[in-house]
Amino acid sequence: MKNFSQPTENKDSASFARKRAVFLGIVIVLVAAVVALSLYTALNSAFGNSDSGAVSSTEDGKLVIEDLYEGEITIPDFDIAHNTYDTEKFQNDNGLITYDDPNASLGIDVSDYQGEIDWETVKESGIDFAMIRAGYRGATRGSLYEDESFERNYEGATNAGIQVGVYFFSQATSVAEAEEEASYVLGLLQGKDLAYPVVFDWEFTEVEGSRTTSATGEQITSYASAFCKKISKAGYTAGVYFNRSLGYNYYNLEELRDFDFWLAEYQNIPAFYYDFKLWQYSDNAQVQGISTPVDINISFKKYA
User: How is domain 80-299 classified at the CATH fold level?
Assistant: First the structure.
């Protein structure tokens, strides 16, 4: 009868080969995991929308991040929430950008510049909310004005089933003027129901003789805070509108953390490092029911 068993040294060799194969398999799996994690971190960093975007801290307490559009930049290190929106959820359909999330909605912001608006058609085109200008302060004389289309736009939007928020274009030069603007807006609202925030929109203007050309970041922050506190006290949600320049170079966003942020950044994906609830991604959109170009926005928050 033949003996088919292997010699002892052959058994030891086969056992060693199996152990080596198992060891190499474990190593390969670990290396693959490390590579995948590195790629994931690098991609998130490149899009500038996660904590991994922070490259390092500077001696004066600022952050150096890798921005999606500007490369390496230095920004203030604010102790507030960061932008964590998923870049893969942004969909661009021939210039119409949406965000694939049940809390997200599409909206516009309008003033008397848009003229007569067919709000029913606007609603049918897929617009869920509208930020309507309530009024503004003049850049040179500092007088307060109601937007000529405010009442008409508010009634038209609400009657069409579009949720409404408002904004005031500020040219405040003091805390007292910012509080005056808040009181003026509350007077225009007269208790009107709003689903979306009442927003403080302070901007530098190129108007000759502008009263605000020398404003500092500390001053502008104090104006926004004063306006929003008064609006909040009246029972409305308050917010602050800004672009990247104001957000990074002027506003102390940490002092405004109790209010909702509305970001203006005209890109396919928002790369601003800190969190915001509204994103204005174009000032030149075409919406059915409006004959002029209009600003278009995404809200990431489901306002009541």
Answer: TIM Barrel (3.20.20)
